[in-house]
Design goal:
With about 120 residues, this protein is an all-alpha fold. It is about 85% helix and about 0% strand. It contains five helices and no strands.
Length: about 120
């Protein structure tokens, strides 16, 4: 007795049948399945997914560009120190103009409260 049953013989026959298909027949079968799958997608919702993907792509590209610029700045030995000094000077100047008197401090606190109310509710 053989281990092969009539069902297994039919399966192996269909395997050789699919192997004997030409490339164009296989290609048309695959493309038909792809088109059928794409036909089931709700394309009206793709706008928001496209926007989200676009925002993510822009953020990634911006981060790469910023990293390259910062690496280039750090390549020059004196430039990072000068930029740090510039930041300290700008922060000191802003503090002197906006925090020197109590009226200015109250105005800054009021602006912060307005921004907080506007953006956080």
């Amino acid at each position: 007795m053989s281990d092969n049953t009539p069902e297994s013989n039919q399966d192996s026959g269909s395997d050789t049948n699919s192997e004997s298909k030409s490339f164009s027949e296989k290609y048309s079968d695959v493309m038909g399945k792809i088109n059928e799958t794409l036909g089931t997608i709700d394309w009206t919702q793709m706008g928001k997914y496209g926007k989200a993907a676009g925002v993510i792509a822009v953020v990634v590209i911006a981060q790469i560009i910023i990293k390259v610029v910062i690496d280039t700045i750090n390549f020059f030995p004196i430039l990072p120190g000068l930029l740090e000094l510039l930041g300290v000077i700008v922060a000191g100047q802003w503090s002197w103009q906006n925090l020197r008197t109590s009226e200015n401090r109250e105005a800054v606190l009021e602006r912060v409260q307005n921004l907080k109310k506007t953006y956080l509710g």
